[in-house]
Amino acid sequence: MVHSPALSGRRLVVTSQGRMALGKNIQHGDDIALISECDVPFALRPVQEKDRYTLGMPVLLPGVMHGEAWPENGIEGLEEIKIV
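Below the sequence we write its predicted structure tokens.
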């Protein structure tokens, strides 16, 4: 077992697409999303109101960090959400 301050408190999770990620305080049902102007994806927890979320911690998700997953045209497939 590896003990590292960088992994402290993070859990290994598998996304619905079968990708492995590391996140703190992430729970089943949370979404992982890219947020404009951020280099890393974040965990989003849905609230009862439609299209509203609470902002969680950054998620380490290889292939999605540092802009690799942004659409080439910059807006295709993006949706607006509300963080409360």
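The mean pLDDT is 84.
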